[in-house]
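RECORD TYPE: protein structure
NAME: Sialic acid TRAP transporter substrate-binding protein SiaP
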Amino acid sequence: MKKLTLLGKCGLMALAVGAVATAHSASAKDLKFAHVYETSEPFHEWAVWAAEELEERTDGRHTMEVFPASSLGKEVDINEGLGLGTVDVIYTGNQFAARSYGPIGIAGAPYMFRDVDHWKTYRDSDLFRELAQGYRDETDNKVITLTYYGQRHVTSNVEIDEPSDMEGLKIRTPNAPLYMMMPDAVGANPTPIAFAEVYLALQQGTVDAQENPLNTIRAKKFYEVQEYINLTGHITDSLLTIVSGITWNSLSEEDQEILTNVLEEAAQGATQDIIESEEELVSWFEEQGTTVNKDVDREAFREAVRPHLTGEDVEWSQETFDRLQDL
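PREDICTED:
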């Protein structure tokens, strides 16, 4: 009888251990972090760092695999994937998130920020947190932070000094309205083309120009098929790090905090790398034989765009615009 009781106790212990193991397995998650950038770029390098840190800080409860260079789809696709549960974490432009919640796109509008310090102040502001909450209320997805992407400049085969130089220019832009705002304002022809196809489009003359930060121009080798980099600085751009609501809601509070911390630290690391590299890249491009045009009349471009930054055609209020400008 004692033997049977002992066996019964052992059986119950085995069941208990099994239940704990099953619960642990159910709570563990292999995350997918998707983005459209090259493996050579700081965004990817820091995403990989975040994946390693997540596994270490959760004692292996969670792992995260990073899928770069549009391997899980174009930017529109990975944004949609958040709601479908096919991706767990993404980098995305403010302009793409604005498809779901318009006001958050304000950070991707041309000449919205005075400089990088103004952008940093916005990133750390109550205004940004309120817009992130508005996005979450609309989508259930969790905005974690912003990563500096760089100032966007126009590359072309003609020198661009002032807005009139862009009249009729067929320029590739991402497929989001705010990227098209500046080209539209100066009479150019913005042409959306998938990021992975831009090099070939420039090489074949499908478009005459494109716009991106210096780091991206180097990583995607656009300087090989464009003669000029015109320092328009028309958008002080950044990437949102967003976690799928499905994923976020499945995590314990402890693991939500760990994931938030590693993603915020990765954003800070990538931001610093981008700022430092921007300072060095002008000389690097000149060494490659590309003409870097530093004489762009940015104030003329700013004036051309200014009337488009408020009013019925944008999805943020005058109050939101004024709060951002007052930061």
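COMMENT: The CA atoms of residues 173 and 179 lie 6 Å apart.
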